[in-house]
Amino acid sequence: MPDGAAEPNSPATALVHLASGIGNMVLATPLLIALGHMGFVVDLLTEADYPQTVDLFRNWSIIRGLHHCCVDERYEYIIPAVPPFYSSRLARDYSRDARIVPRPPDWLFYQDEQEYYLDFARRLGYPAGKRPWYSLPIAPADSFGVGPRTLVLAPGCKTGEMAAKRWPYFPQLARAFEDVAIVGTADDMRDHSGSQFSFPPHVRVFVDTLTLRETAELLAAAGAAVGNDSGLCHIAGAVGTPTVMIFGPTPHLTLGRLPPNVRVIRAGLSCEACWFGSRFQECSARINCLRHVAVGTVEQELRSFLGP
Questions:
Q1: Residue 214 to residues 86, 138, 174, 284, Cα–Cα distance (Å)
Q2: Under a CB-based contact definition with an 8 Å cutoff, are residues 192 and 163 in contact?
Q3: How far is the CA of 24 from the CAs of 33, 84, 205, 260, in angstroms?
Q4: More confident residue, 98 or 21
Q5: Residue at which a domain ends, from 123, 141, 168
Q6: Which residues contact 208 (CB under 8 A, 6 or more apart)?
Q7: Does residue 103 sit in the same domain as residue 167?
Q8: Are 238 and 22 in contact (CB under 8 A)?
Q9: Quick check: is 176 in a domain?
Q10: One domain for residues 43 and 169
Q11: CA distance 34 to 132
Q12: What's the average model confidence in pLDDT over 43-69?
């Protein structure tokens, strides 16, 4: 029997390589679900911007093992499901390996990121008409005092130019609700300009006190979550929490379809989304598309989840 071949009648084995940000890896979960539907034995190789991201996939029945390096010879298929901007690393790691499932064209990633990842499963026989929702099998934890009436704020996102995705009015929104908690890191407590957010005293702050897995468990227990185009917001959506995502300069349609529990709010200015075009030029980097999303608009959407 050739190296890497399966025993007769045994399930096919696949090593799936995921990489980049938290949100990118959450958006790739439909691929894992599709492989599970097809009966594959799946191992996961992660190359995450945040090392704790791998903990989101622990104890998932469709994943046999989690790895940080070293491609084992026993896999029948190797699936390099990473964004196109990681392609130079792939060329180094996966050159001339017959087990590699061919990558879809780069343009598909920028048109529908979830379909880009799912295309690998389709090349292995997954039906074209099936599209699982992105999801994470993480149950709510009751150890944080967060419950069905709690609104969780995730006011941050990545730093640098990515900070332009931050909506500036989270403190004002917090004043409109009685039971509020905040998650993220210390950097997430700053707006796009670098100014420190000032939240009212009734807000419970879990910043820099939880692991990423614990943050996901807290989000799963909440009545609703709200944040920017960020990994934490995608985690909230993936664990089933009613989630409001506020978009400005970045597009949301390119992410693919979002679960029914996720709602998108944007100002709808003619210049948005500018991320893949003349970035920030129309507004001279004032990010008007986020400044024009009113607190009352976000509050009203959240009230539909939490009640009056």
A1: 28, 10, 22, 39
A2: yes
A3: 15, 11, 26, 19
A4: 21
A5: 123
A6: 185, 186
A7: no
A8: no
A9: yes
A10: no
A11: 7
A12: 93
What Cα–Cα distance (Å) separates residue 34 from each residue in 38, 43, 222?
Answer: 6, 14, 28
In a domain, 130, yes or no: no
Close Cβ partners of 210 (under 8 Å, ≥ 6 residues apart): 183, 218
**3-class DSSP assignment, residue 218:** helix
In terms of C-beta density within 10 A (0-12 exposed, 13-18 middle, 19 or more buried), how is residue 97 classed?
A: exposed
* Cβ within 8 Å of residue 60, ≥6 positions away: 32, 136, 137
CATH number at residue 61: 3.40.50
Same domain, 187 and 268: yes
Q: What is the pLDDT of residue 10?
A: 83
Quote the number of domains for the chain: 2
Q: How far is CA 134 from CA 3, 34, 143, 144, 168, in A?
A: 34, 11, 26, 25, 28
Query: Does 65 score more than 90 pLDDT?
Result: yes
Residue range(s) defining the domain that contains residue 298:
151-306
* Burial of 190: CB neighbours in 10 Å, binned 0-12, 13-18, 19+: middle
> 115: burial class by Cβ within 10 Å (0-12, 13-18, 19+)?
middle
- Let me know whether 87 and 157 are in one domain: no
Higher pLDDT, 240 or 73: 240
Element of type H or E holding 151: strand 151-154
* CA torsion through residues 172, 175, 177, 180, sign: positive
Q: At CA 180, angle to CA 205 and CA 242, rounded to 5?
A: 115
Whole-angstrom distance between the N-terminal and C-terminal Cα of the chain?
A: 66
Within-domain flag for 134: no
Give me the chain's average pLDDT, please: 92
Does residue 261 lie in a domain region? yes
176 & 233 share domain: yes
Torsion of the alpha carbons at 142, 146, 148 and 149, rounded to the nearest 10: 160
